[in-house]
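Quick entry between incubations.
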Amino acid sequence: MTDCVIIGGGVIGLSIARELAGRGARVRVLCREQGRDTASWAAAGIFPPAPPPGDGAMPAGDRLTAWSDSLHRRWAEELRDETGIDTELRRVGGLHLAASDAGLERLEAAAQAWRARGARCDWLTTREIIEHEPALAPAVSTGGVRGGFLLPEEMSLRPPRHLAALEASCRQRGVVMTGADVHAVEVRDGSVAGVVTDSGIVHGATYCFATGAWSGTVASSLGLAIETRPIRGQIVLLRLPRQVLGRVVNFGIEYLVPRADGRLLVGSTIEDAGFAPTTTPEAVERLRGVAKRLLGALTDAALEQAWAGLRPGSIDGLPTLGPIPGYDNAFIAAGHFRAGLHQSTGTAVVLADLVTGAPPTIDLAPFAPARRGERLAGPPPDSVAAYLARAASEEA
Ligand SMILES: Cc1cc2nc3c(=O)[nH]c(=O)nc-3n(C[C@H](O)[C@H](O)[C@H](O)COP(=O)(O)OP(=O)(O)OC[C@H]3O[C@@H](n4cnc5c(N)ncnc54)[C@H](O)[C@@H]3O)c2cc1C
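Done. Structure below.
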């Protein structure tokens, strides 16, 4: 019997599998879609600055992010040593720019908030913006960029490479990976006895559900009401003749992320559009327009591909991490919304703690399943609604 069956092969499921296998467990991952059908593949891979972990006054979500951030640096090195894959985790820095009075006001408040959290945040003159990123000179000179700040500690990582490295590392550690749709869960006397797939029932000693935006449905089959509302994000990838940016450029809710090979990723939308990971012509045009506004005609003919992913929204902005109430061998890790790549390492360590019976490294009370009255239908939860409102109304 496998020690742990993990359902879901996105960044959360694979990270848990890697950590568990590293502790000597026999692990099997069952996954329906892999690669680009997961939110994890679709993500931009931006890691905003994370203050050093250990500050007790930090909100729970920030604490998980800060701890995960420090683990990521170690994981990136380990993954490169184990698999030869460079995940492109780099401290590139992030510019946050505005084009309007309202946008500048929002950035001033954001800069104060970053400083209050202990992050270095440098307010820049327009001349300094051009010094940092000369490709923005035309946008600055025409008033398309009016000011902003630099977060030197902002990092970025390349999600498809990170996933490939995780998968290779899992295989080296003996993890068995199977393409399978889990469509029912067998329960017996307060335990999960098996998960039902098209090719039969899979048994394990423990089960970990890391099923992203689909987790609400999976959890409800175990009597747990959590909402992991799918919030679509669309991204376009441009191929430029040469890379013109060195840093991530955040512009309102949109952003440009330069890749080492010259490609430029432009994201993203925030849409409450159900389980439809498809792109729309309007969004693709809008994102291309952002690139053109900031970098000019250079980006005109450069569209290489476009994709969409479904972020798992949560009701209070925090992921759900912990034992599933009523079962002695089932755990859940879901609902990471916009930060699942960033929070994946801490999530993996703490879920591996739970599965192996070790005391969890961080306090899991704020993330506990059934921590509040969940709802499964109706308007989007407040944590998601705030982003949807920004996406609908906020101009840079
Ligand atoms: C456009 C976009 C940009 C983003 N940018 C960032 C960013 O910059 N930084 C960041 O940290 N995060 C970002 N995110 C968020 C991040 O991608 C998610 O929080 C994270 O990927 C969630 O990972 P997951 O493993 O829970 O879900 P997924 O990656 O969706 O994986 C879930 C897996 O479970 C499988 N599954 C579901 N149900 C079943 C079943 N019944 N049987 C078998 N398998 C099943 C699915 O097929 C899928 O493989 C972004 C997301 C999007 C869409």
